[in-house]
Amino acid sequence: MPTLPAASKNARFFISYRSQDPDLSLAHNFYEALKAAGHEAFMAGESIRLGEKWPQRIDEELKLCDYFLLLLSERSATSEMVTEEVRQAKQLRDGSDKHKPVILPIRVNFSWSAPLNYDLRGYLQQVQQREWNSPADTSKILQEIFSLLADGDVKRLADGEMSSDFFPSSPPHSLTLSPPLPVAEPELPEGQVDLASAFYIERPPSESRCYEAILKPGSLIRIKAPRQMGKTSLMARILHQASQQDYLTVPLSFQLADGKVFADDLDKFLQWFCASVGRRLRLPNKLAGYWDDIFGSKDNCTAYFEEYLLPEINQPLALGLDEVDRIFQYPEIANDFFGLLRAWHEDAKNRDIWKKLRLVVVHSTEVYIPMNINQSPFNVGLPIELPEFNTQQVLDLARRHGLNWSFTQVGQLMAMVGGHPYLVRVALYHIARQDITLNLLLQTAPTEAGPYSDHLRRHLWNLEQRPELAAAIKKVVANTSPVRLNSIQCFKLLSMGLLQQQGNDVTPRCDLYRQYFRDRLRVS
Q: Which domain holds residue 425?
C-alpha cells in the first residue's frame, strides 16, 4: 500500500461492487485504505447492519457521497443493481452545483474490449476509467486518488481529467450501430451480441412491418413495450436494415442525456437535440448561425434541420429516438418537442426535404401527459407493441440454447416468468451453462438465492424510492383478481414491466413478481 497522506478533507466514498471475488476482496482493500486515510467509506456488505432497510440506506449514502468508486468486473458489468447505482450517481451529479458524486470507474480484470451493457456504455461515456489487473495496481490507483483529493479540484476530477501517469485513459466510445447489449445478456460470455445473433427471436409481423415502413419517405414508426422487452434491440435492427439501403442512421437515447439538458428550458433541450444529431452525422456544430432569439425554439430547431442538417446529406436519414419516456417528466418540453416531430412528419407529405427524414420513436408506456390530438406523434405512423414470447418461441429459444426441452418444461418456466424475453433468457442462460436445474430455478426464483435476485432487488430499490408505487404494487400482489389503480401509477408500473393490463385493471406481470413482492413488501 502507498504511504497515505494526511486527509486534507474528510471525503465520503460509495464503493459499488458485486459481492463476489475479485470485486469483493478489492472493495475491502479500498474500503480499509480509505478509512485509514481518514475518509468515510460505504460498502454495503460492511456498512449495512442486520435488519436495516438496505434500499433507504443506499439512497442516503449515494446522496451524501463525494466520490462513487465503481468496480467494474465481468460480473458487475452485468449487474442490474450496479447499473442502477451508476444511473442514480450520474443523475445526482448532473443535478449538483458541486459536481458530486464524482464517478471513478475501475475495470477489474476486465479489458477495454469487453462489452458493457447499453446503459453503462452511455452513463460512462467520456468518463475516464482505470484498469486493475493485479494487487500492485491497487496502490497505484489509491495513490492517484489521494493525489487528486489533495489537489481539491473536484470540478477537474468530475470532468474526467484524472492523471494518466499510471494507466491509460479509456478508449473513445464509438457511435456504432451494434445492437445494445441487455443487462445480463445470455450471450455475454461469448462476447457482444451481433445483429445476426442466433438468440434473437423475431415476433412476427413486427420486424417485417418495420423493415418495410422505414423505407417509406417521411415514415414514423412507434415502438411501445415495457422495460427489457426488446424495444431497443428492434430499433437497432430497423436502423441496420435502413443502413443496408444506404441510409444514414442515428440512434439517440434520451435516457443517457444529462439532467441539465431537461432542467433548463425548451431552448436548451432543442439545442442539445440538434447538436447531438449533427455530431452523430459528423457535421460541424453551427447552432450559432441558425439560432436566432427573434424566433422561437421550435422555429430555430426546424430551420437547423431544414436548412443545414438535411441539405448536407445526400441520403435519407433514419433517426431512432429511444427512451422518449424520459421527456414525459417535463410536460412543457414534451408538448413542444412531440408536436415538432408530428409537424415534421406531416411536412413530409408535401415537401421533399422532409421526406428524407424517417423517425423511429421508442417508449415504454402510454403517453400520460395531455396532448392536442392533432399535435401528437403518438396517433400517427406505424404502431408496434411488442408482445411477450409465446410458448413456441420460448421452446425455439430453449433449443437454440442447446436444451432438448418439451412443451412441459416450457410450461413450467412460463408459469413462473411468463413470456417475458429478459426473464426467459436469464433462465435459459443459467440452465444451459448448468449453473442450475430447471427445478431448482423454479424453487429459488422469487428469493435472494435465485438467479433473479439482482433483477428483483433493483425493482425493490426503485419502488422503495417511490412510496406511492410501492403501495400500489402491494395492493396488486395482495389480490388474486385484477385491481384498478390510479392512472399515473398504473402507467409507471406498466413501464417498469411489473404489471400487465386486463381491460382497465392490472395484475402482476408474472408469478415471480407476485411471490417476491408479497414477501418483501410484507403483504399479509
A: 391-445
